[in-house]
Fold this protein.
Amino acid sequence: MTLATVDPTTGRTLATFDALDPGAVEECLAEAARTFSTYRRTSFAERSDLLMRAAALLEEEAEAVARTMTTEMGKPLAASRAEAAKCVKAMRWYAAHAESLLADEHPAEADVRDAGAASVHVRYRPVGVVLAVMPWNFPLWQVVRFAAPALMAGNVGLLKHASNVPQTALYLGDLFRRAGFPRGCFQTLLIGSGGVEAVLRDPRVAAATLTGSEPAGRAVASVAGDEVKKTVLELGGSDPYVVMPSADVARAAATAVTARVQNNGQSCIAAKRFIVHTEVYDEFAERFTAGMSALVVGDPMEESTDVGPLATESGRADVEELVEDAVRRGVTVLCGGRRPPGRPDGWFYEPTVLADVTPAMRVDQEETFGPVATLYRVRNLDEAVDRANSTPFGLSSNVWTRDDADVARFARDLEAGGVFVNGMTASHPALPFGGVKRSGYGRELSGHGMREFCNITTVWRAAAAD
């Protein structure tokens, strides 16, 4: 089997790489297990120094890495640079905060006495070798937001990256090695999806984390459940973007454009369903459609490009099928809805706004992974909440209102892992990230994410005998 870098701007194959054979995978597993036996005993100070070195290397090499990401999956070059910078920030944040995030916890003295102990403390210990199954849409950030906390906790990582970003995958494995991490601390496995189950079932692998599609998540969760291994899943999203009468409509509409087309619209936390109160619907729809129509679609290496190609030909076909189904069922296309004219090569699709969406349309319930927005009119707060919660997904949400009562209601009732008020959803190392319903379970980032792959150990010591 081979893995390939295929330029989504042209559709041309630029490089191919042979997948690891079973013998090479076995060597990686053995090395990971050997390394964990000693790396888990290193100090936070040692780990922090190593991660800071990795951050410095990535910062020095950011431009080259950004160009590799853009070449492999088509995001605008400016977005790739921002992704690399975000990874550097996350590495440094975890290097500075990991020790305090995993500090021993001490129950109250009264509870210690009631437990019949002289002392009790709770310690966070690493679980071991963690398999990370990662997607192509943020090929650097998705990996680093796992790797930085996992390595600082004393775990070691095995990366099975998406098959269309092999150069980014190889770079990540090489980055941690060059930073001085012990051999085997973080290894890239160039394998296809068919090789994941055998790795996950290996007794040397303790846990797994996956960011990707719902089918991929179900497959990994099923195997891990059979093996009784911990998993964290961050799956798809169809995030609502709710605009209420008290909102700053001009600002909400401008931000909505960015929120929908970030990463060429290929982001699980991109706003996808725009739910607007009838009092401000017409103004929002006009401003939002104008903003989407004004975006420059083109070569992602050009600084003037706002939206590049979709990452894969099949991904564009999926988007086209959803839009075509909606058109057949009576949707109103306010802008876009087709491949850009004059671009016969590459996997481009115009920024699109669909109005008059109904539950009979697939686009109403399925995740649209491309620059396509659906627009809904609602009459009141209850209808806004119901519409926001009307899909199987629950990753994050966006709410635009200056009414505190609205904020309280949305924070209480939206079925999502995040509620972002008067701004678009974004991830940050200090904030827990993850979803509910079919968007997955568990959390990444912050102390919550770091502790997902820790053995939470109670250390109880008996009181001295009289």
User: Anything to note?
Assistant: The chain has two domains: 2-235+439-461, 239-428. The mean pLDDT is 97. Residues 239-428 form a domain with the Aldehyde Dehydrogenase; Chain A, domain 2 fold (CATH 3.40.309.10).
